[in-house]
Amino acid sequence: TMMIVVTPYVVLDDWHIKRLCVIESQITGVILRTPMNRHALKQWLIQLLANGFPKSKVIIHTDVTLAMELSISNVHFKEGDHRATLLKQVQPHYQVSMSTHSAAMVRDAKAQQLDFVLFGHLFPTSSKPDLPPRTQLEVD
């Protein structure tokens, strides 16, 4: 079973580092979804790793350049981002994942040989106010 957590869409700070280090043994990975620019996120990530959080559990959201700069081989993309397929073709050893919102997109991601998908959303969310949560039928 995979347990992937996603950071809140905020500027990450020391509290987030402490919290991730506390839950690290119980999770498979963390997707860093934040408005921070590359430089600020890189500095924060260096601190996270210095606190003992394993690089293997860090999943960079979209920023392939940052992932390469820090030798992080886990990258997550939003639904339909064609860079996911390109990255998987160029760096087949990378773990590349994508958010999906339909069974068709799950099938597409599988056909593109992505490593896993996040299928959602299951609860109402402010990030997708016009999109209702997935139904039980869709999840099944």
Q: What's the gist of this structure?
A:
The chain is α/β, with parallel strands linked by helices. The chain has six helices and six strands.
Task: Label this structure with key terms.
140 residues, alpha/beta, TIM Barrel
Secondary-structure element sequence?
Answer: EHEHEHEHEHEH
Average pLDDT taken over every residue: 92
Task: Strand order, main sheet: write it out.
Answer: 1-2-3-4-5-6
Beta-strand percent range: 15-25%
The CATH topology is given as TIM Barrel
What would CATH call the class?
A: Alpha Beta
Distance between the termini: 17 Å
Helix content range:
25-40%
Number of domains: 1
Low-confidence stretches: none
The number of distinct helices, counting runs of at least 4 residues, comes to 6
Radius of gyration: 15 Å
Count of individual beta strands: 6
Largest sheet: 6 strands, parallel
| CATH architecture term | Alpha-Beta Barrel
- Approximate shape: globular
The CATH homologous superfamily is named Aldolase class I
Structural class: alpha/beta
Oligomer: single chain
Protein name: Thiamine phosphate synthase
InterPro entries: Aldolase_TIM, ThiamineP_synth_sf, ThiamineP_synth_TenI
GO biological process, one term: thiamine biosynthetic process
Domain Thiamine phosphate synthase/TenI: 25-134
